[in-house]
């Protein structure tokens, strides 16, 4: 079976052409064949067929086309298209696709030319070009396939240039002159063809025509692109002007079919650098440092090695290529280039690759292929001899290890090596060693702007910023999305940003022609040793953004020392970055977002579910032990490891470990509440809740729903909180869990109380008290007494409030609950303050602050200080109030406690009101009103409005003051609070 894509797509079987006339199935087949023997995802196939306007049924249509193609291509019982998650694999041999054969022939021709065998090189390259029947993928017009066709056409033209170069070495000048005249007309902006035409004309004795060809090229480039000709074309022009002898054909005559190298004489200077890249973005400092070191080497007293290391996609190759071109003039005896496979994990394979590269370098330097020694040691010695006394630049791209590099290092002054690697190369002595990082946000946006246009980025700055963030500043990822957006001019940037937002398809979206982030990451993964790959996958099981070595111990089931050693290996492999020291003194590491997603893919593809579950169970057990210890430093450690905690619960839920997920979420509740870690609280409980429901575990479901009720209460979303408590209550009644029911009743009562619905709140407290009495639960009864005392104070029953709060205080103290004790002391102080007993209010408020300071809860301490400050304001001692209030406001703001912020703002407003600073008072009171109104807390909003009314009254704005008082009074009357009597007697 033969697949032809270099022209209109065709399929041939046993010498007969198959009739596959439908365009869309053929587009699907072409997209798969272009990535033969690799999994092609469903989104990639949809893009290839429909571009940016797929139908709603695209996935179903793809499956239909696959079935049609399978029937048409079925032969010998072997399937060409194989289902592989998350798409399909097109299983064909390299000889079956003309694109692969073309590339193989081109590589053979290139190798022959590098070895000085120009006759065979020209013939092989001519055979490769003869395979083209017309424009590649002719008739397939989706953006993705047109981009692929453009890439193939670019490759074809490169092969044309290489074939012309070979024939130039053979002296076929007359034929080339006519052909190049046609080629530069067809491709006027290709400077290599222009240079070849100029050289042919000069060697034919037509210097004036050669100079005229340069003039036309320069004029065209300036008019069309606004740029001057490139460095090489300008150098050739200058050489022609001065009739440089080096421009003559080898030997001064037309050369023979076999070059001098075949007869043992050194050949012309090798110039093997790849095509010069476009402008680099944000690498000026690195480029300057490397250029300085390399230029110094050319005139120095010893050879120099410069290394660029960095994670996959960080732009190492582009930087090395740019630097090599920039300093090439300092190395007139040649520039040698080799691209390795990055196989640092297999020493044998890596050294075999180094041996082949040495052979290619020696042939390029004029050594006859037949005379090359076999062993790598002998080749390395010969290479050092051939480079002695020469100024040669050696560029080694994607080297795998120090051992692979050392045989390729020149030993004498005047030469230099510039290499890139995906590993740290700690054992290599390098004069200049640059560790390339991702781009900072501003530079990343600048790169995106250059690729898609400043106008599009300016039109959608938020989408552009999100794209850059989701790419993690990785140059390869940004170039990939830039290429896609440049091809889709009508796409809003927000469309691609939305696609990238989905973690499960992000790597699928980062593909554009031969730019593919996943493939680059795969190269790094493939270069790792087996133990490092295992650690990488196990990190992918959990997928933290940051971690310390302790995490690897349970994931790999190893000790702490081994975990630290493996973390070092991951750092050396440049898949994690050392970022500092953790709160417990361990090293701290970060994983790039795209690397993290790739690790998850590898875990899902290679790690059996059983092993993933065991790893997460070990991790969960360790976390429960740590949480249970509750040392003084535990909270700081939990804050630091928030990402790991959330991901552990999420993965436990996904792997069916619902009891572990529930237990972890519940254990973390106190930590999350202490720090107002609302996002982590929500994500862990939601994930565990889904798992509990899937398992039919109604008790766990109820516990998690109650936890979500607590969360919504802390977020001041009281109606939602009551809903979660109510749902949990129903489940707990069905399960017969009385203690759980009582807890939900108290939660609902608190929510209703804050909403000013005191009647329902009292009834719920009474129901909870009945259950707690039956359970003989003194702590539960203390909670009920506290709730009753709170409501009594709100409605003006101060005696009832004090009696209830005294019972609560006794209950909390008997249970040793310092948190409840501190809050109750504060509550008793509030009641005394409301009753006008300010001395007693101050004493109890001070006692409350002392207790709350002792338990280490800075948010509750902020509430205690606010209460004491308010007493001082009422006593006329405002000088004692301002600093504690400012500190309390800072704590509430830092922890995202909107209610606390509003409460302190109102108290500061009262402070300024008492001091006569009406403008400042109004500002703080409005801030309080706005926050309480946004949370739906009408009673507290009304209290801020009552104080604002006083501000307006003192300003003489009686109309606004009356309006605010009336609105506040309506709320007080509806809620039945103590303030209704106070306002009712004031004039409206």
From TrEMBL:
Presence of the UniProt keyword Transcription regulation in the record: yes
Residue ranges the record marks as coiled coil: none
GO biological process assignments: phosphorelay signal transduction system; regulation of DNA-templated transcription
DNA-binding region: 1-92
Entry-linked InterPro entries: AAA+_ATPase, AAA_16, AfsR-DnrI-RedD_regulator, Apaf_helical, BTAD, OmpR/PhoB-type_DNA-bd, P-loop_NTPase, Sig_transdc_resp-reg_C-effctor
Cited Pfam families: AAA_16, BTAD, Trans_reg_C
Domain called OmpR/PhoB-type: residue spans: 1-92
PANTHER family assigned to the protein according to its UniProt record, in alphabetical order: TRANSCRIPTIONAL REGULATOR REDD (PTHR35807:SF1), TRANSCRIPTIONAL REGULATOR REDD-RELATED (PTHR35807)
The name this protein goes by in its record: SARP family transcriptional regulator
Species annotation: Phytohabitans rumicis
